[in-house]
């Protein structure tokens, strides 16, 4: 899966969390070094390049954007019909599927969904998971 780019605040929160986790491991990591590592994890050369691109690229979940992914383990292509930025890189979205998705795994009946709403985190998936541990909704930008 391609990681969705976070908002600027989301990237900074990731850097802060990385720094804290390294501190627990006994590894000293400066604030600037953690920002550089986060930038590199998203494929940027350095933090300054990453920061300059985040405001533009974080709009990937804007209304009208095309996305693909998996909803309850079913593949889909969809259009974003609502997008509201929440705190620390989380975005509430509503998706309109191109083809309705069957959300029931039982063969004897089905339940098709054409639109769904969810809150997507900086890594491109929901916090909520199905019973097998897979996020309910996983997104990739098209």
From TrEMBL:
Domain of life: Bacteria
UniProt-listed InterPro entries: Glyoxalase_8
Pfam families xref list: Glyoxalase_8
Domain Glyoxalase-related protein: 1-140
Record protein name field: Glyoxalase-related protein domain-containing protein
